[in-house]
Amino acid sequence: MPTFSKAPPVSVLNGFREIKPTKYASIPLGVYVRYFKEGELKYGGFLKVMKHPDYMVLFNYNKKVSWSVQLKDPSLHVWIKDPNKPEKKKTEKKTEQKASTKR
Known about the structure:
By secondary structure, this protein is mainly beta.
């Protein structure tokens, strides 16, 4: 786990799994990526292009913007959205909270 100047809330990485630098080339196109660079959380975007070992290009559909992330940066740590770890939706969380307060 990397050392961060500010510790990110654990909830921002729920449903994500860390990818080792040796496995960057195997990240599938279209997957959602979050990353830390120089100890700062970057909320990332969807993987559009992977040019391993040099860089990857991420895309934000809402803002219609893309940017590159240099894979050779030693401070880079990458997390991808893990389809095997389903996130709890807000409505499910509210339902659980209501059920626990009724008890």
